[in-house]
Amino acid sequence: MRIEKNMSFIEESKKSITYLKKKEEFLSRIFENKQMLIVVWALDGKVVWFNRYTQAVIGIAVEEQTERIYVSSIIPKDIISRIKEHLDDIEDRDILYKCENPMVLKDGRQIYIMWYNSNMCDDEGNKYVVSTGIDITDLKNAERRLEEANSNLLALNEELMVQQEELSEMNEELMAQEEQLRQNLIEIQRQQDALKRSEERYRLVVEGASDGLWDWDLITDTAYISERWKDVIGFDKEVVNNYCETWTEFIHPRDVKTVINNLHSHLEKKTPFYLCEYRIKTKDGRYIWILSRGKALWDEEGRAIRIAGSHTDITGRKQMESKLKYMAFYDPLTNLPRRDVFMDRFKAAMADARRNGKKLAVLFVDLDNFKTINDSLGHHTGDKLLKKIARKLTACLRESDTVSRVGGDEFVILLSDIISIDDTDKVANRILELFNQPIKINNYELYVTGSIGIALYPDHGKSERAILKNADIAMYKAKGKGKNGFQYFDSIMRSEVEFANTIKRDLGLALEKNQFFLCYQPLVDVRTGKVASMEALLRWQHPKKGIISPFHFIPIAEETRQIISIGEWVLRTACRQKKEWLNMGYSGFSVSVNVSVHQLQQPDFAKVVCEILNEIELDPRHLELEITETVLIKAMDTVVRNLYHLKEIGVKIIIDDFGTENSSFRYMQKFNFDGLKIDKSFVSEIKVDVNKAIVDAIILLGHRMELGVTAEGVETKEQLDCLVKCGCDKVQGYYFSKPLPPDEAIRMVQKSV
């Protein structure tokens, strides 16, 4: 049994060995396949094993040891690098690399190898790469042959397409020629129809156009004139013979030369078109403006043989241009020359006067109360008034003189060729006489006066600018002297203007540089002889011109609105001084401050006053604010709101310069004032019966309204006695004291106690 089992085992072993040998031979045939390179190599690059085909292809000698062979002699280095990179990152994946670079064998042949690589490990964990290369040379050669065949086929197709396109173009050309012949026949028919329509259209255009069409044959001197313009001129035929002479007879004599010059310029090819504006006489004898346009034809020798064009009636446009030109040089409201025209005439007159040793005069006329009329009755009434005044001024001048409107209510007059000042005086007096009678407009009788400033050439200036400026300065001087008069310029006025300009320039820095100070003038109670109030009066200590009176700088401060900040400084300084006097024990009088209309027009004025009183801790009953009647006229709502607020807190409101305006009574009914101050103009002439009567009436009115009445400008005992008899409550003036510094003013209080 054991022997049988052993025999059976031996048989099975032989079969296994035989099977293994066969399998080994089969695998050997696979490994030794002549189309496959097999190389096993370690990661250090050394070859572990390769098959015979690899040996044959690479040309490795049999006796060489595999340890001396590196894989880089078989597989390209770039593939080896990629294999190593991917084997480091991916351990379980095979990587296929295709190398199409030719490999040169030892027999000189070129082949293409595609490598397949996989990784493996032995029992000891060493890593190896099995690289299998397949010879794809035949495949590459087949691809190349296929590409060459495709290229040849493409070239053949392109050649066939070119031939086909040439045949197609020939066919299209034949078809186009056939279509062109057909289109030519259609075009000939269309042109025949168009010609017929064009003839009809031309006839309609010629008959319906407002322009006059003309066609002049220069060789025969005959011209065709369209129907409408034939009727305008009065021709009896459309074709005019001897056209040049005939047409010239209808041109305005002043325009003939211009027409001929423009026509010759075009016929001589100096201008691309014939273009000319001129006047022609119509059949009814009137002249109209036309715009004549045309284009000439020349023969081969350059001779003009024909010219055709049109005539357009531009009379309306010319009238508009004339109107616009007039408006550019003349004031549309008064029809007086504008400033530019005046200056041109002034310049010419001055040149003539300089050449012939003559004189001329410029009068600057300004209406005194035009703004009041314009504001109260409206601009429409004001415009009518200006028109009438312009006509009156023109009527009282010579034809050689010029009057121009240079501002809203300002006129300037040029008197040329005057012999003496008497001539200028006569004209100035005639102008003032114009205003003696009222001017009636819209059922109103308007009383207007004028102030006139006069400057002479060459006495008052050598240039137009200097003469005008000096006449303007003289006009303001005339206004300052009471209006409704005339004043000649003199050098003193120039000094005054320069002084005013200096004030305007320096006033802005006066407050910043602490150049202002206050003086105080007492108001004395007539019954007790005590000081009832101290009026704060502003003074300016100019660094170069010394003390400047408010008479000179207050109007400029109001004009520039610097009076707002200056007035606030005065109010704060006066209140602070009053607080200081109170602290010294003097409480029997108040302090009085003048307030400008510009201050009262500020919506927050009352708030500013309250803040100053709170800041200084001064009781409002110690403060009086003096306002002029003019304040009540301007910005009434804002002014009254401020005054009411101040009255509520206890500030006293006094009307200053009472009697110099005509509007106070209306506002005295609406607002409860605390007192009146009679203007010094009435006090200075109180001996005159009428002035005494006015003072009596003002005091009576004040007392009836339970108001205290003060007279300012008291300078003599006679004036004081008269005021006492009239019942005046308080007086102020040089008779008692001039404005004093604070320390001297308080001594007046001490004396009156």
Number of domains: 5
Q: Sheet bearing the most strands, described?
A: 8 strands, mixed, barrel
Strand tally is 29
Mean pLDDT: 83
Query: How are the strands of the largest sheet arranged?
Result: 21-22-24-25-26-27-28-29
Give the overall form: flat
Strand content: 15-25%
Question: Which secondary structure elements does this structure contain, and how are they paired or packed?
Answer:
Blueprint: H1 2-31, E1 36-42, E2 47-50, H2 52-58, H3 77-89, E3 95-98, E4 103-104, E5 110-111, E6 113-121, E7 127-135, H4 137-208, E8 212-217, E9 222-225, H5 227-233, E10 239-240, H6 243-248, H7 256-267, E11 274-281, E12 287-298, E13 304-313, H8 315-329, H9 339-356, E14 359-367, H10 370-377, H11 379-395, E15 402-405, E16 410-418, H12 421-434, E17 439-441, E18 444-446, E19 450-457, H13 464-480, E20 485-488, H14 491-510, E21 516-525, E22 531-542, E23 546-548, H15 550-559, H16 563-583, E24 590-594, H17 597-600, H18 605-616, E25 623-628, H19 629-633, H20 636-649, E26 652-658, H21 664-668, E27 675-678, H22 680-684, H23 689-704, E28 708-712, H24 717-726, E29 730-732, H25 742-752
Parallel strand pairs: 19-20, 22-24, 24-25, 25-26, 26-27, 27-28, 28-29
Antiparallel strand pairs: 1-2, 1-7, 3-6, 4-5, 6-7, 8-9, 8-13, 9-10, 11-12, 12-13, 14-16, 14-19, 15-16, 17-18, 21-22, 21-29, 22-23
Helix pairs in contact: 10-11, 14-15, 16-18, 18-20
What can you tell me about this protein's structure?
The chain is α+β, with helices and mostly antiparallel strands and 753 residues long. It folds into five domains: 32-135, PAS domain (Beta-Lactamase), CATH 3.30.450; 146-203; 209-320, 2-Layer Sandwich (Beta-Lactamase); 337-489, Reverse transcriptase/Diguanylate cyclase domain (Alpha-Beta Plaits, 2-Layer Sandwich), CATH 3.30.70; 508-752, TIM Barrel, CATH 3.20.20.450. The chain has 25 helices and 29 strands. The strands form six sheets. The chain has an eight-stranded mixed beta barrel with strand order 21-22-24-25-26-27-28-29, surrounded by four helices. The chain has a six-stranded antiparallel sheet with strand order 10-9-8-13-12-11, sandwiched between helices. The relative contact order is 0.04. The mean pLDDT is 83.
